[in-house]
């Protein structure tokens, strides 16, 4: 499903589900002014088309021993398609890497990593991060305070108008 095929009701459904993934279909229907069956059909269509990729619980990182955050710049020794694919595949197997983004500029990747503390990060750096395929150099930046860390998306229609 492409963005152009989403209508205002779809966006309202998505906004409500982002705010509360456990919302009942009855309550969702009420909030978006649809009856239950058409609302459920729209949700199923959004799921099957891949617009809704899944549901999850937002956990308190400190409560689950993952309150320490670092950002790591990674420079690879080579950036041919093969090396990039090997690196991309390998980061999928390191659960502490919360996000991995390929960058344009002075380094190749930016990793967001969550661990229990600096000692556990140091161990991870030596045993996993530096062992990822083709890693030539890393630079670690310790996050002192997380000011904003959203997982929800701001949505705009096909004309770029922000949907509230």
TrEMBL record:
Keywords assigned: Activator, DNA-binding, Transcription, Transcription regulation
Transmembrane segments: none
Gene3D superfamilies: 3.30.70.920, Winged helix-like DNA-binding domain superfamily/Winged helix DNA-binding domain
Domain HTH asnC-type: 6-69
InterPro entries: ArsR-like_HTH, AsnC-type_HTH_dom, Dimeric_a/b-barrel, Tscrpt_reg_AsnC-like, Tscrpt_reg_AsnC/Lrp_C, Tscrpt_reg_HTH_AsnC-type_CS, WH-like_DNA-bd_sf, WH_DNA-bd_sf
Keyword Ion transport: no
Name of the protein described by the UniProt record: Lrp/AsnC ligand binding domain-containing protein
The species this protein was found in: Sneathiella sedimenti
